[in-house]
Each structure stands twice: as structure tokens, then as C-alpha cells.
Amino acid sequence: MALLFKNRGTMMLLMFNLFLVFAGIGLVIPVIPKYITMLDITGSTAGLLTASFAFTQLIFSPLAGRLSDSFGRKRIIVTGMLVFACAEVIFGLADSALLLFVSRLMGGVSGAFIMPAVMAYAADMTTEEERAKGMGYINASFLTGYIIGPGIGGYLAEFGIRVPFYVAGAAGLVAAIITTIVLRESRATRKSDEKNTIVTQKEPQKSLLQQLRFAYREPYFISLILVFVMSFGLANYEAIFGLFVDHKLGFTPKDIAFIFTFASIGGALIQLSVFGWIMNRLGEKLVITLCLLASGIFILLTLFVHQFWLIFAVTFIIFLSIDLLRPAISTQMSMVAEEQQGYVAGLNSAFTSLGNIVGPVAAGMLFDVNMNFPYVVAGMILILTVGLMLFTGNKRVLPTSNDRNERNVESC
């Protein structure tokens, strides 16, 4: 727990910022039906609204990672928090579908700025021995925010449909002010101008498409595939969970809010308390393999349980598996990133966004065919991905300067 209070509680502040932004993703879920009625928008528009956040996060994540390497983590984090605060207030004030889209697109930009910068900052301030624990803390806040967001939105909406967004906007502004005052720039960004010039010469800026195109040559490419699969599975599961339990089991909104809230809190607490110990005892590869297998199996088990507490138990295991899986993958990538922490964190965020876009779209299409199909597909993909871990080693080999230069020439 000492890491949480290191450098004037820097880790706790980073965790709060990330939790706040990604809780904002889920705030919209419980109020979308009322907004559809109030603003007379169609269901397809509502689906695009949900995907728009992840889309802009995908577009801006690699750029934000580069900017955090060039201009410092703190500036990017504060900028992201201010954009987030504005986006939430705009959503609360919206009286047209256009303003809703503006808000969600801005929210995606804020997520793109904050997530890679926070992850890079955590890598900067931790030693190799602390890295797994630090990534565990950061990813616990991210996933808890993403999962618990619908529950928070549902409870706050009891006081008014727009209240959740005003509260989130105010919290974002306060967090930006506190970050400006308390957070110090991390050590890794205080490198000499000469070293930064050398790094820049070796790694020319590339577009998002170029970064994704050549990602397969990176030593952490398998980890990026795992990030996509994990995000796809979680987004797939969460996107139609409410519809699934409503249609099949008759659960109420309060039942759904309870499951999301307490299952995510339980998973996060376990991650915060024992993740570092688990990583030290089992190693990254085994943790990733077991979590992929567990999440896939329990997503499939969702199809065969019908009682409230059994659904709660299955959901808890799924959230716990994802809570442990993400920081294990992030730790694996950060170990090979060296001076590219921001760049690698940006790619991590981009592949997360790809999963968050494809997952809900696929889930919605499959649900229209058969309500069980989304979970069958998600569970099978997660289980099959275990093969990637069984047939890949744990080598942490960085590409040479020649390899990088060849890639840069080819990308021109």
C-alpha cells in the first residue's frame, strides 16, 4: 500500500482521474432510453452514440501517447481532464442529438489523452519490482470506472436525468485543479534535449494507420492482440447484459445496477490487495492464460444460470478475470517499452478502443439473431486466444535500431 502514497499520493490521484473518465463512458447507458424519448432519436442513432466515444479514443490515443513523451505527462493529463469536464456538461445540457455526439466525441478525446499519459506516468514512477503492482492499481481504477459507470449513472439519475453529467463535469474540473497543484512531472520526461533529439530521429512520427499497420513487428504485438480480445470480450458482455437479463430473466434496472456495482468493486479490491503477489508467484504468462480461460468459460456459463445470485457470482468472476488480465498485459508491454512508455501506452489504448467499438457492434448484431449468440462468440474467442499464450514465449527483446529504421523507411 506504500506505493499508493508515494510522491504525495500521486498514484491515488492518477487512479482517481482514470476512474472518473471511464466511469463517464458508462454514465450514458441507463439514461439513453429516456434521452431517446426526450430528443426523439432512433435506436440506431443511440448505437452510434455509444460507439462514438471509443472511436475518437482510438483516433487520438497514439497521438496523445507521443505528446506525453514530448511535452510531459502532467500537461496531457490536465488537458484531458478539462476536455472531459466540458464534455460531461455539454451532455447534460444537450437538447439535440448533435450536441450528444459532440459530447461523446469530446469524451473519447479526453480518454485518449488521459489513459496513455497516466499509464506512462505510472511506469515512470515505479521500479521494475513495483511495476506490476503499479499497473494493477492503475488498471483497477480504469476497469472499475468502466464497469461501475452504469450503476453510478442509474443511481444519480434518480435525482434527475441530467444530474449524473453535471456531477461528473464538476468532479472533472476539481480533479484537473488538484492535478495541476499536486502532480509533479515524472522523471522519465526530464531527459536531456540531446537524448530526446536522438529518440525523435530514430522514431519519426507516424499516423495511426501506420502505427497499427506495423504493430505486428513490435515485440509486444501479441500483448496488443490480447488487449483487443480482452476489450472485445468485456464490451461484448457489458453491451447487451441489460437486454439479456431483462429478456431472459426479467431483471429490473436495480438488479442490474447492483450486479455491476458490487461485482466490479469486489474485483477491484482483490486486484488492489493481491495482484502484485499473484504476479510475483505465477508470472505474467500464466496469469494472462488463466484469466483468459476463466473469463471465456464464465461468459459461457452465463447462458446456463438463472438465479440472481448465480448470475452475480458468474459476473463477479468475469470482472475479476478482466481486472487481473489488463494490468498483467500492461506490465508485460511496459517492460519492453523503455523510453517509449507513452507511445506503447497509446497503442494499448488504441487496441482497447478497437475492442470497445467492435464488441458492442458485434453483440448488437448477434443479439438480433439470437440473444445467446453474443456470449457464445465472446466466450469462444477468449478461450481460443489462450492458444496465443501457449504457443508464444516470454521473451522481452527490443527491436534494434536497424529494425526500427527499416520500418520507418517502409512506412514512408
What's the count of strands? 0
CATH superfamily: MFS general substrate transporter like domains
Q: Give the termini distance in whole angstroms.
A: 47 Å
Residue windows where pLDDT falls under 50 for at least 5 positions? 188-203, 394-412
Structural shape: globular
Computed Rg: 20 Å
The average pLDDT is 76
Tally of contiguous helical segments: 17
For the record, the count of structural domains works out to 1
How are the secondary structure elements laid out?
Blueprint (H helix, E strand, L loop, with lengths): L5 H22 L4 H8 L3 H29 L1 H21 L3 H29 L2 H29 L6 H20 L10 H10 L5 H6 L7 H19 L1 H9 L3 H30 L1 H18 L6 H30 L3 H29 L3 H18 L10 H11 L1
Helix pairs in contact: 1-5, 1-6, 1-7, 3-4, 3-5, 3-15, 4-5, 4-7, 5-6, 5-15, 6-12, 6-14, 10-14, 10-15, 10-16, 12-13, 12-14, 13-14, 13-16, 14-15
Subcellular location: Cell membrane
Protein name: MFS transporter
Pfam family, one: MFS_1
Describe the protein's architecture and organization.
The longest helix is centred in the middle third of the chain and has 30 residues, at 253-282. The N and C termini lie far apart (47 Å). The chain has a single domain, classed as Growth Hormone, Chain: A (Up-down Bundle), CATH 1.20.1250.20. Residues 188-203 and 394-412 have low confidence and may be disordered. It is mostly helical and 412 residues long. The chain has 17 helices and no strands. Keywords: Membrane, Transmembrane, Transmembrane helix, Transport.
Overview in brief:
The protein has 412 residues and is mainly alpha-helical.
